């Protein structure tokens, strides 16, 4: 069965919400409350969860811990993922310090750059390698996901390096669409920060100015 | 008419795609090609655009420049927005250097922190103020959007400051849901980087491991 992409996106938000509720000691949650916390509708919550089986009993709500466990399993089967960051500039450095990644099982094992001043040093405890060592290091360290945070001008060089490696998934922060020859085998997700500001502008306009 | 949130999200992606096509000198694009570039379906492209009027003629495709102009207008009516960044740590600093923002009309006018070593200095040419000056400076500089990039521990203090200000929209990078008392009047969009990695893991698993 083909699960809609938007459902997968929301599952990740449900996980975050449930983890927060669990920390607060909350045991049960209704689809109505869940929708409020995650800015969707109770119908959507029920529909999203229905793809994966039957959760909770009508009128009783969901068991927070149990639902969290199941969704975490659906999203990543509790396994750990090793991650590389390509680009040791300010964004790459900020991402290497992002505590959230490690907390949920994503371990940044290596960073890559071309600046001789950065190579063979450590940033936030993470070794920085020359990009020409990308295939070698990612294989050795069993890295499957790469975060791309390089300047636009460097994208085509980075594409070449990625295509030759065994990387399976890419989180792309560069505001261009990556042109990977073996793209159908590599999962690419774009993080376009500008897009988020567009959406806020639209929502502000439609809330405040009409 | 209520436009679905997912449509607004895709419009922002269409804008990015069209801008890229325009740069390459491409004049026409079909909904089929547009869907390929933006990872959706031709039906979805047509449906999304249909909310805003009639674009293009059947069999002729869309005029890239014209469609871009209209979508940009829908999303932000070509106006400029002044932005503040709360938190002058590594993420806030990386975001202040993000060139994409200014290129599309978002101008970071001020940063806020509590670290005496940072206050009254400039980061990337942007003045850093003490957070207690938030209302004063954002009003003076006509700032309507705030980007929140502080540690989790600082969130409740920041919420208080925002609620007292005239800020209309927030882009939140902290992995907790903001609890704004006047939330219904403030547009909040969460950027959860962990969520993106979850989605990649899910897609990798379902492409590679099943």
TrEMBL record, chains A, B:
The main location class comes to cytoplasm
Q: Name one GO biological process term.
A: response to redox state
GO CC terms on record? cytoplasm
Q: Which GO terms describe its molecular function?
A: DNA binding; DNA-binding transcription factor activity
Gene3D superfamilies, per the entry: NAD(P)-binding Rossmann-like Domain, Winged helix-like DNA-binding domain superfamily/Winged helix DNA-binding domain
Give me the positions annotated for DNA binding: 13-52
What the entry lists under InterPro entries is as follows: CoA-bd, NAD(P)-bd_dom_sf, Rex_actinobacterial-type, Rex_DNA-bd_C_dom, Tscrpt_rep_Rex, WH-like_DNA-bd_sf, WH_DNA-bd_sf
User: Does the record carry Signal as a key word?
Assistant: no
The protein's matches in Pfam families, at most eight in alphabetical order, are given as: CoA_binding, Put_DNA-bind_N
Tell me the keywords, alphabetical order.
Cytoplasm, DNA-binding, NAD, Repressor, Transcription, Transcription regulation
Quick check: keyword Transcription in the entry? yes
State the compartments where it is located. Cytoplasm
Q: Where is the CoA-binding domain?
A: 77-177
Per UniProt, NAD(+) binds at 87-92
What SMART domains does the record point to?
CoA_binding
**Role according to the record:** Modulates transcription in response to changes in cellular NADH/NAD(+) redox state.
Task: Report quaternary structure and partners.
Answer: Homodimer.
**Record-given protein name:** Redox-sensing transcriptional repressor Rex
The scientific name of the source species is Caldisericum exile
């Amino acid at each position: 069965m083909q699960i809609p992409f938007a459902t997968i996106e929301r599952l990740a938000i449900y996980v975050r919400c449930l983890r927060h509720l669990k920390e607060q000691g909350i045991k049960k949650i209704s689809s109505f409350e869940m929708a409020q916390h995650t800015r969707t509708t109770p119908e959507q919550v029920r529909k999203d969860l229905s793809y994966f089986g039957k959760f909770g009993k009508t009128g009783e709500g969901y068991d927070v811990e149990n639902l969290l466990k199941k969704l975490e399993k659906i999203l990543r089967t509790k396994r750990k993922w090793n991650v590389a960051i390509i680009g040791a500039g300010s964004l790459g450095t900020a991402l290497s310090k992002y505590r959230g990644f490690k907390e949920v099982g994503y371990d940044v094992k290596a960073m890559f750059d071309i600046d001789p001043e950065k190579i063979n040093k450590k940033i936030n405890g993470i070794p920085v390698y020359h990009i020409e060592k990308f295939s070698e290091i990612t294989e050795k360290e069993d890295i499957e996901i790469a975060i791309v945070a390089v300047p636009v001008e460097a994208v085509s060089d980075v594409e070449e390096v990625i295509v030759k490696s065994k990387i399976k998934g890419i989180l792309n922060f560069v505001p261009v669409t990556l042109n990977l020859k073996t793209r159908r085998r590599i999962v690419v997700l774009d993080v376009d920060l500008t897009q988020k500001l567009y959406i806020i502008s639209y929502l502000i306009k439609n809330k405040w100015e009409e």
